[in-house]
Amino acid sequence: MLQEFYLILSAIIFTIGTVGVLTRSNAIVIFMSIELMLNAVNLSIITFASFSNDPVGQVFVFFVMAVAAAEAAIGLAIVIALYRLKKTMFIDNLKLLRN
Length: 99
What we know:
Strand content: under 5%
Oligomer: single chain
Order of helices and strands: HHH
Mean pLDDT: 86
């Protein structure tokens, strides 16, 4: 019963992150939504690992959190570089691939 609650919570958090990525145009909010999605996946992995009494899931989540931290650092560096170049944080205003 408790595992179902965690999986439902994980699905809700993942849905909020997906809606945030699809509907927002601010780069910082998009990166925060991606972090929400990664945390939802981590919660579901921990739930399944707890259900099956397998500690490998917890070790896997540790590595996913390390990758998420690196993604956040690199993403923030990209956002800062784009802000310095274009003076905006909105993805809609960035047209880097066009002349």
